[in-house]
Structure formats: C-alpha cells, structure tokens
Design a protein that fits this description.
The complex is a heterodimer of chains A (653) and B (366).
Chain A lengths: L9 E5 L7 E7 L2 E7 L13 E6 L10 H15 L7 H32 L3 H29 L6 H12 L3 H11 L9 H10 L3 H14 L4 H13 L11 H20 L7 H10 L3 H6 L1 H4 L2 H12 L8 H12 L8 H10 L3 H11 L4 H12 L8 H20 L5 H9 L5 H9 L7 H13 L3 H17 L3 H11 L2 H18 L5 H5 L9 H17 L3 H13 L8 H12 L8 H21 L7 H30 L4
Antiparallel strand pairs in A: 2-3, 3-4
Chain B lengths: L1 E7 L6 E6 L5 E6 L3 E7 L5 E8 L5 E6 L7 E6 L4 E7 L3 H5 L4 E8 L6 E6 L7 E6 L3 E6 L10 E7 L4 E6 L10 E6 L10 E7 L4 E8 L8 E4 L8 E6 L3 E8 L12 E9 L6 E6 L5 E6 L3 E7 L5 E9 L16 E2 L28
Antiparallel strand pairs in B: 1-26, 2-3, 3-4, 4-5, 6-7, 7-8, 8-9, 10-11, 11-12, 12-13, 14-15, 15-16, 16-17, 18-19, 19-20, 20-21, 22-23, 23-24, 24-25
The chains are: A mainly alpha (653), B mainly beta (366).
GO cellular component, one term (chain A): nuclear membrane
Function (chain A): Functions as a component of the nuclear pore complex (NPC).
Family (chain A): Belongs to the nucleoporin Nup85 family.
C-alpha cells in the first residue's frame, strides 16, 4: 500500500515585501500571477511596490531541447495504445520490451544532444543547466532500464543476472573512456590507470577484455608468466549462463560451483600471493565482499556493487531474492554518514518489485510528469498495475497521463500532442480535453480551424459552437461581416446569423453594394440557418440574375421573396423599387398575374404604412418621397399590366 | 517554480485584484487608485498596458472578464457602492498602431447602498448575467437580454442574505442535471446567523433562487469562496477562505418525486488547512481544478493538490522574500516589463540526483 511520504513543499521566493503585506494571485494558463496587496486595508496605502510577478512551474515544456523527447515519445505512446488487447500475453511481451527500448532510445538521443550542447557551449550557466538536464535524463533512463529488466522483460533466474549485468555496463561508460586512454598510451601496461581498467572490466564481468589487457602485462613480466597463465585460464573458464542453450539452470549452477571451488583453491594455495593485483582480481572473482568494498571508487554505486556481488557469488539469483541482496548491498556500500538519495530509494523499490512505490517516488522527485506517465502507461499495458487492484491501477495511469497532458496543453504547439493522451484516458480524458481546449488562444484563423477540427472529430458540439461564436464576435467587432457570417454559420447560431444578415442588408441600403459577395453567393444549404440569412442569399441571387440579364427569372425570384414572405416587410419597399427597372423594360417581363401580385403587395404595404401614419411624427419630406415612389410604382405596374394583357391576349402569328 | 517575469503595474495605490481573461492573453488590474488597467500579452510574452482609466470614485475591489462569446467586456465593483460594465471599442487604426484601446462604460449599477464587495459573471450558458454582492447583505443578479446592447441591464433577482456579503462564486457546471447554483460568503460577525456560507439554487418552477444550504460548520468570517470547475463529477467542490482553508464536497441527494424545493445537498468536509496561521483571504482554482491556491495572513500563497487517492496536501509555497523590486513609475502608459532573473526555488529533491558522480556528464554514447 502506498503510504504518504511527507515531503516539505518547495518554497519559491517572490521579490516582494515579506512583512505586513499579503500576496494576491491570479491563475493563468500555465502560470500564476502574484502581487503585493493588503486585504482589508482601511486607509490608502500609497503605491508601495506595484509589481506583478509571473510565476511558472514546469520549465521543461518550454525547453526546446526536450521538444524532440515529447514529440517522439508521443509517437511511441500512440503506437502502444493500438496494440490489440486480445493477443495472448506471450506474443505481446516482446512487443512491450521493444516499445520500452524505443522509449529509452529516445531518452538517450535527447541526452546526447543535450550533452553536446553542454560540452560545446562557452556560457557557464547554460552548461550547468544543460548538464543538470542530462543528469536527470540519465537517472530516468537508468530507472526505466531497470524497470524494463525486472518488470517488463521479467527475466527469470539465470537470465536475470545477465540482464542486470548489461544494465550496469550500459550505465558505466567511463570504463571504456579510461581503457581507450590507456590503450592509446605508449606503454599501456605501465599506464597509471592500467590496473583500474583491468579491475573495472572484471567487476563488470567483461572477462574477455580483462584477459586481453592482462596479456599486455604478462609480456612485460615473462618471469611471472605461469601466474598470468593461471589467471587467464580461470578467467576464461568462468561459466556464463546461456538462456538459449540446452543447459539447464541447475546444470549451470553445478558447473559454476565447480569453477568457484577452483578459484577458491587458487586463493588458498597462495597462487597469486606474490602479485598484489592478481591477488585482488582473484578475490574479486571468488566474490569476496571485503575486496569488492575496497573498490568502491571503481564500483561507484551500490547497485554496481550489488550486481558484481551477485555475479561472483550467486549468479542464479531469483527475482524474489533480489530485494534482500539489494538492501544489504546498499547498507554495506553507503557508509554511515551518507543518506540514501531519492534515486537510491527508487532503485531499491524496483528491486523489491514494488512498482507503485517506484512510481510514487519518481512522481515526488521529478519536476515533470513525462517519465512517470509514460512508464506507468506501459506497465499498465503489461497488466502489471492491475495485479494490485484493478480500479486503483487504471486510475493511477489516467491520473498521471492527465497530469502530463494538462501540462502540455499550456504550450503553444505541444498542446496538439496532448489531445492524443486525453483520447486514451477513457474516464476523464474527454471532459479534461473539452474543458482545456476552450481556453486555447485563437490567435489566428488557422489555429482556430485546427482547434475546431479536433472538436468536430470528437463531436464536442458545445466547444465547436463556442469557438465559432467567439470568432464571429471578434470579426463582428472588427466589422468583418463576411468572416462573422461564416463563423456564425459554422456555429449554427441562427440569432447571430440573423443579426449579421441585417447588417449586410443595412450596408446594402446605405452603400448600394454588397460586401463579401463570394461568401453570400456560396452559402448553399447554410442559407436555411435563419430567415434573414435566406433572404440575404436570395436577394443577392436576384441581383446576380439581373446582372446576367436573366430578367424573367429575376422577376420571378423577386416576386417570390415577397409572396413567400421570405423578405421582411421592412424591405418590401426596396424590393418593389428594385422591380421598377424590370417594369420599365421595353419587353414585358412580369406576366399579368405576376403584376397583379405585385400590385397586391404594394397595396398591402401602403395600407400598413397608412395605419401607422396618422399620429406618427414623420417629417413631411420623407413622406413626400415615399408617396412619390408609390405613385411611380403604381404607374409602372399599371402600364405593365396593360402591356402584359395585350401580349398574352395576342395570338402568335 | 520560479519568477519568469515581473511587470511594473504602475498603479498609484494598492492593487486589489488581477484577473486573466479567458484565453490568458489579456489581464485586468484594479486598485485603490480607483482605476482599472488592461494589459495585453504580446507574442514574445511581454505585457503591454493598452488601457488605463478611472472607473470609480472609490477603491476598486474586483475586476472580472465576461466570456469572450460576449465580446471584450469587463465588470468592476467598488467601495463607491457601484458596479460597472465596460466594453472595449475597436479604435482608430492609429490607436491600434500605438497599441492602445478604448473602453467605454456601458452601465453603472447603483442599486447597492453599501460597498459592493464582489462582482462575477454567471456561467455563459445562462446568457450574459452579472452578479454583485454587497456589504448590505444583498446579492443582485442582472441580465443583459440583448448581448449586442450592453447598456441595457435588468435586475432579475435581489436576494437578501441577512448577513454582510464578501464574496460570491457560481457553480460553473453547465450540466442539465444541475440547476444554476451560487455560493455567498459572509464576513459578518453576527452570531445569530452563524453559518457564514450560503448556497442558493435556481428553481425553475418559482423562477427564483432559493437557499439550498447553509454551511453551519463555517462560523468565522469568510473572505473568499470558489466552486471548482466540474470535471464530469456528480458532486460539487467548494473551497472557502476563512480562518483556514477548507474544501467541501457537496453531494446532491436524490430528489423525492414530489419535492419542488431546492436539491438537498449532503455536505462533507474534504480538507482543512491552517498553515497560513490566521486569516485566509483568497482561494481560487486553476483551470483544471487540480490545484487550489490560497493567500493568507502569513503573507504566502500556498498551492494545494490532491493525489489520485484524493488526499490533499500543500505542494508549493510562494513567499515574499523581503526585497521588493523598485520600479520606475511615472510614465502612465509605460510598460516596463522587467524580465525577472530566475529566482530558483530551493533545490528540488531530484537535483540531489545530479550530484551523483557516475551520473555526471562524462558518458559516451551507447
């Protein structure tokens, strides 16, 4: 069970007064603003210090060097989620191991890049900063690798030690550097680091390389040739378990004990007594703890000590036995003064197969959720979390993924990666995504469209509506009617579409032309969103027809706008006025029936105007203009009617 | 955590409130100097003051943004017994070039007889609705029926809480399962009405707000109150700033079929922290409601977080270090943005890891 570890909260200093003042704050996306204030101040304070401080937490997501880490691990994460659930476990294990290795190689690649910068920069502060990041990544990779060996690959006794040996070798590269230096020197066997290299090789179980080094020493001391030969033989005969071979673990154990006995006899025989170095090596390979501990500097960590000790005293160690050895090795290695560091506790928890403790300690120690989120997700896929408690396990995975993804969301471009993480959190992913995606600043139309597409793909209709509304409002405020209209249509906001259509029509009335013709011409079915919008579209269509000289079609449309009540009454006068040029054409365009209908409309309009006229305070000048228009129309309609009747009554010759 | 940037706010008196807009690209500040300033964040992260104007004839206590669906709209409330609504007018192009914008007053709400202590917009799904609370113990809810005409507001509800009010918070949940709900906090020292937090819920039958619950266990003055954003939970979470920080869980109980009153709420206390050592003045949730921040008499801001087992603890403290920045004040629209030197936190546990000798930078590639 996970007991709560009481870690003191970190204190961040703010350049502000510490006495007699309060700190006010305001949450922002990804940061918190803090300022000096005084709650319940009764008198004016004078400005004091009126600074507002932007306080941020996660620096990692802003680091351009880690960008690749986030991008590539995202790719691996998404791939992992698609592994089919129904495959039997034994087919999946190699896949999971492979995925684990992918994650680790991404970490290593990132580390290498950072390392290069750290080494090549002239700026001391940058070098330190990058150096720190490298250290952290190293620790992460170390932990991940161990988790892979113990939990994912879950090597049984025999293979277990071999994997652990690989693990230690991978994380102790300084041996190779030293060796290279020694070998490149004039006389390697006389190099002051020579024996350190040999011993280091032995400690890591790299006996072949140790033997090759020893040859160089042997040639320098022909007198001691027999001793060197003996050592060479012992080293070459050390049995290593071969998991793919036919030998069983028991058989290997027997063989190993036999070899171990032989080494011991050499020690008892004082075969190497005259050469202190060879004596030491002999003691090491027989597994003498004291000798191993004398080489703390070369081992440098208690877990190297652990693996070496197991290699030379208990190579058939079982997974369940590890924790006992781990604990004792750590105790032996760290002297009384030193306190185990977080990394030590994490590794120890891993050796104890306490996955939850590993995750918990990592969560506490690390600044960023990246590591625990991805590792936990992988372990969950391996069904390793569920063995404790089903509900508990999946909650933990989601919790960590949600934390990680929420952190990404505040970044101006990484937020897109976060979407996939939310998608793979079945319980809360959708609601978290819905909530956070609304807050993404819609700086450009392109970005808004990107955000929209994501919402539309997930049927987040409320978010779609809201984003479109925000964009429409913004466009309207800036008098970009076309953009506003197009956003309202997308928002399916009928009320707003009506409002904007009114504006368009008002614009037309004052200026005589339409703006944003392209948009209005291509409304398509969206036209039906609101009556006013439909009218706008159709009215524009009328103008088009007229422009193309398709007069009878235009006439028909114009009439229908009134008879079908598509046009608002307030616009009828304008429409009738638009009819005038059609009535005054040499050719008869409106049929007799149509003319009757127009007349009817005109009467309807004038009678309603008359009803409102008495008592209203209209300036007579306007009234006059209206009256003139009406008379003109009546005249034109009458003339047209006469001509239409004649035309329709005439038999075509 | 670290100070990424320090902005010289240039107010001539105490700042009482700072409010980020919905997208985090603008902020508004208000002060005892009776003015409100609006700041815009540029692409490179710097803040520029794009407007600064006198808003009231007394200290301005709070300033808040309406949802961007309603345009660029601010509301402020003041000691001068009024609340006001402001709208940004898209200015002349030369103004834009100079990076300035204009805000005009759309309405003044003068119904209160005492200092207006808080002003908040209701959740957007309720339309454009503004709520104020005053020292006279009245909560007022106003509505602008036509969002294109912000000079028309009507007082829809006037709720007398019997206690002087200091703060209000709307439940942000827009779920159909819940009726609109808000909480009011009181800093009244009245002993007769000892419960200092009241929860009101809208009743669609009576078309009025009715009290659903009084938190009787909160008997000390309440200075701030905040509902957490709802993340698909069936219950509500409310944080309270009083003599300590308290977090409550309000669980709606199943309604009996005939019941027409407000939903019965089961009140459970989830956490209580007295680390601030005396009065807590503000509480506020971050966007995902995973972090709660509080500010108290100890001059600190504390951050609280729940782990996945729902255990709450303090995960960070922001504290004045006693050496405030001395800024250049004087130019009214000057934006002296000082990029603060990263005042690094006390070393985080993991940094201990980096001192291990084998983990230092000498590793070659593998």
């Amino acid at each position: 069970m996970m007991e709560e570890v009481d870690v003191e909260p970190a204190v961040t200093n703010i350049p502000a007064a510490s006495d007699g003042k309060h700190l006010g704050f305001a949450w922002g996306p990804g940061d918190i603003l803090v300022y000096e204030t005084l709650y319940k101040a009764s008198v004016a304070q004078g400005s004091g210090c009126s600074f507002i401080h932007e306080v941020r937490k996660d620096e990692d997501i802003y680091s351009p060097n880690l960008r690749k880490l986030f991008n590539e691990s995202h790719h691996i994460f998404v791939g992992l989620q698609t592994i089919r659930e129904d495959l039997p476990s034994k087919n999946k294990k190699p896949q999971f191991v492979s995925i684990s290795k992918n994650y680790r190689s991404v970490i290593r690649a990132c580390m290498e890049e950072l390392q290069q910068v750290a080494v090549s920069t002239k700026d001391a502060e940058v070098a330190t900063q990058y150096g720190n990041q490298v250290s952290i990544l190293l620790a992460i990779e170390l932990i991940w690798n161990l988790c892979e060996v113990l939990f994912i690959d879950a090597a049984p006794a025999g293979s277990l030690l071999l994997h652990l040996l690989d693990w230690v070798r991978l994380h102790k590269a300084d041996v190779d550097e030293k060796a290279a230096e020694v070998l490149q020197s004039e006389s390697p066997a006389e190099h002051h680091d020579y024996w350190d290299v040999v011993v280091s090789y032995v400690l890591q179980g790299r006996l072949e390389e140790a033997r090759q080094m020893l040859v160089k020493q042997a040639t320098l001391h022909p007198a001691a040739r027999k001793m060197y030969k003996l050592m060479d033989t012992l080293l070459s005969k050390m049995p290593f378990y071969n998991p793919g071979g036919t030998q069983t673990l028991t058989e290997f154990d027997v063989k190993w004990r036999h070899w171990h006995g032989e080494v011991n006899r050499c020690l008892q025989d004082n075969s190497f007594a005259s050469n202190q170095h060879l004596e030491i090596i002999c003691k090491i390979i027989v597994g003498d703890e004291d000798t191993l501990l004398e080489h703390k500097e070369l081992l440098s960590t208690w877990y190297h000590f652990l693996v070496t000790r197991l290699l030379f005293s208990h190579p058939t160690v079982k997974p369940t036995e590890l924790h006992y050895y781990a604990q004792s090795c750590m105790t032996m290695f760290l002297d009384a003064r030193s306190v185990p560091e977080p990394l030590d506790n994490i590794l120890l928890a891993a050796f104890e197969f306490d996955i939850h403790q590993v995750i918990k300690e990592c969560s506490i120690a690390l600044n960023n959720w990246w590591f625990v989120a991805h590792l936990t997700d992988l372990l969950d896929h391996c069904k390793l979390l569920q063995s404790h408690n089903l509900h508990f396990g999946s909650n933990l995975r989601e919790f960590l993924l949600l934390e990680y993804a929420s952190g990404l969301f505040t970044h101006h471009s990484l937020w897109q990666l976060a979407v996939d993480y939310f998608d793979n959190c079945p319980e809360f992913g959708r609601v978290y995504l819905g909530l956070q995606i609304e807050h993404i600043p819609l700086d450009t139309e392109r970005k808004a469209l990107k955000v929209l597409r994501i919402c539309e793909q997930r049927q987040m209709s409320e978010q779609v509506r809201s984003i479109c509304k925000i964009m429409a409002m913004r466009a309207l405020r800036n008098n970009r009617l076309g953009s506003a209209l197009s956003w309202s249509i997308r928002a399916k906001d009928a009320a707003f579409a009506t409002l904007i259509s009114e504006r368009f029509l008002q614009d037309y009335c004052t200026r005589g032309t339409f703006s944003d013709l392209d948009l209005i011409d291509n409304l398509g079915p969206a036209m039906l969103l609101s009556d006013r919008l439909t009218f706008l579209g159709k009215y524009r269509e009328f103008h088009k027809l007229y422009g193309e000289k398709r007069f009878s079609e235009a006439a028909k449309l114009l009439l229908s706008l009134m008879t079908a009540k598509i046009a608002p009454r307030s616009f009828w006068m304008t429409l009738l006025t638009d009819a005038l040029p059609l009535l005054e054409q040499k050719e008869v365009i409106f049929s007799a029936d149509q003319t009757h209908e127009l007349m009817f409309c005109l009467e309807e309009l004038t009678s309603s105007l008359n009803h409102s006229a008495p008592g209203t305070d209209k300036p007579t000048q306007d009234e006059d203009i209206e009256q003139t228009k009406v008379e003109l129309l009546r005249l034109a309609l009458a003339r047209n009617l006469a001509m239409a009747i004649i035309k329709e009554g005439t038999i075509e010759a | 955590m670290f100070v990424a940037r320090s902005i010289a706010a240039d107010h001539k008196d105490l700042i009482h409130d700072v409010s980020y807009d919905f997208h985090g690209r603008r902020m508004a500040t208000c002060s005892s100097d009776q003015s409100v300033k609006v700041w815009d964040k540029s692409e490179n992260g710097e803040w520029h003051c794009t407007a600064s104007w006198k808003t009231h004839s007394g200290s301005v206590w709070r300033v808040t943004w309406a949802h961007p669906e309603f345009g660029q709209v601010l509301a402020s409330c003041s000691f001068d017994r009024t609340a006001a609504v402001w709208e940004e007018i898209v200015g002349e192009s030369n103004d834009k070039q100079r990076g300035l914008s204009h805000w005009i007053k759309r309405t003044t709400l003068v119904d209160s007889r005492t200092s207006v202590t808080d002003v908040k917009f209701a959740p957007k799904h309720m339309g454009l609705m503004l709520t104020t609370c005053s020292a006279d113990g009245v909560v007022r809810i106003y509505e602008a029926p036509d969002v294109m005409n912000l000079s028309q507001w009507s007082l829809q509800h006037e709720i007398s809480c019997k206690l002087s009010c200091s703060c209000i918070s709307w439940n942000p949940s827009s779920s159909r399962a819940h009726q609109p709900m808000f909480a009011v906090g009181s800093d009244d020292s009245n002993v007769t009405y000892s419960g200092k937090v009241q929860i009101y819920e809208y009743n669609e039958n009576t078309r009025k707000y009715a009290k659903a619950e009084t938190l009787m266990t909160v008997t000390d003055a309440v200075h701030d109150i905040a509902f957490a954003p709802n993340l698909g939970r069936s219950f509500h979470v409310l944080a309270i700033a009083t003599k300590d920080v308290r977090i409550f869980k309000l669980v709606p109980m199943r309604k009996e079929s005939a019941s027409t009153g407000p939903t019965k709420l089961e009140v459970q206390i989830v956490a209580q922290f007295d680390n601030h050592n005396s009065q807590v003045w503000r509480v506020s949730w971050n966007i995902t409601s995973t972090l709660l921040a509080s500010s108290g008499d100890d001059g600190c801001v504390r951050l609280w977080k729940a782990n996945y087992m729902d255990n709450w603890k303090c995960t960070g403290i922001l504290k004045g270090d006693g050496s405030p920045l001395t800024g250049s004040s004087g130019q009214p629209t000057a934006m002296s943005t000082v990029v603060g030197s990263s005042v690094q936190t006390s070393q985080n546990a993991l940094n201990g890891m980096s001192s291990r000798s084998e983990l230092t930078a000498s590793h070659a590639s593998h």
